[in-house]
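ingest -> fold -> write
write: protein_1
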Amino acid sequence: MPKRKNTFSSWRRRLAQRAVHTGWSWVQRAGSVTAENPGRLRFGSIGEATRLAFPLGTVFGEPWIHLGSHCIIAEQVTLTAGLMPDLDLGPDPILRIGDGVVLGRGSHVIADTTVTIGRDCYFGPYVYVTSTNHSYDDPHQPIGRQWPRMEPVEIGPGCWIGTGAVILPGARIGRNVVVAAGAVVRGTVPDHAVVAGAPARVVRRWTADEGWQPPLRTPAPVPIPAGTTSEQLRALAELDEDGVARLAELEPEPGS
């Protein structure tokens, strides 16, 4: 005979699950870091509406870390200034993050010397940015014991950095650049470029004279018309192919 389901045990499990999820949501809200509720962290500056999600990654050297306004720092993001905690790094900030920056879950920004991230940059998860690289000049010493090399890193405004990308010391990335997922970037990247590969190279670029070269393969997204309500958007999302075709037939002819 089939075993009878223990309804009471199932009910208790659902109740416990709901309690755990509710409790964890409360912990996430209470543990997040903002300018109003910085906890133990004392950043050099942290702007309005910026939030570091809980649980945090490794964070140290925060007096030399300046965060802009309206930034979203996801869970388990590491932000460090200096080689180790409790160093005096001088009067100037080491890590600057501009307004409106989004750092995806599990990303690392390691600023042993200056790292600057421009406003409105978006990072996918697990991006690694570092101003320090290991040295291996002496073949008789373990690499981890050799003094590292440091070079400043600069990421211009408006960039999109894909999942798992690595930005190496000395990188200079222009404005509105796309760094493909998994790319390894070193050196200078011009404005309005798309780079991919390891090492990364320019695979597409926009200029005022030629536009995008090679040309884009997909049409540009159509902006949502001004005045469109959330109810209208939900109704459009529920349309099937036949409904979209019928709606297209209702569009007025040009010049009518």
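write: protein_2
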Amino acid sequence: MTEKRKLKIFGRLQRTPKEKWKKEEFSELEYEPTPVKELLTEMKDISELIIDLAYSSLLFDNEEISEEVKYLDVRMDKLNYDIRMMAMMATRTKEDAEQLAGILQVAEAAESISNAAGDIVSLRSKGKTGPILPKILKQADEQLFRIKVSKDSKACNQKIGDLKIETETGMRLIAIRRGECWIYNPQSDTSIQADDWLITRGTDGGYKDLRKFLHGELEALE
């Protein structure tokens, strides 16, 4: 995938300018031949992340996360456009059409997930969710949590992959807030720093263990 297409959405320290999504939405559509595997991989990554971000924006009442959801929703639309263009240009026989029909169905399903996330943040911005919905979300089996990293934690300056957070606690890292910037979908080589705010998803038990570790109360995750 080219630098132009990939856009470095995930695992990168970045700011979320207000209405960044509008710039992307009104930019000129330009088809660029790309392997279908790369298109579907990015669509999968976005669909996995965007719902967690949408609920995070609602639960923590965060406008910046809402803006990122809107941006990813627009990005998904453009990926779906590219994959439809690819399918139309690649179809030569009935067999080709049958194979590509399945790929297009997967792409449409991923875009439906993205659209649903967009609807969630739209309701938040219109103030239609009220205080009751965040309370309901907190009763789910898997919840979203925010944890601040203490300077006393052994996690400081360590890579996520080396810490094995998800393996040891079952908690998935959704995003990291660092100063005025964000890292969405942090990767295994992303380092954790003191005073980072981590947005995570998992069970209450996993959260308690991770919180103790990030607060410096545990030497290591076990």
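write: annotation protein_2
Residues 140-214 form a domain with the Alpha-Beta Plaits fold (CATH 3.30.70.1450).
The beta strands are 13-14, 143-148, 158-159, 172-178, 181-184, 191-192, 197-202.
pipeline exit 0
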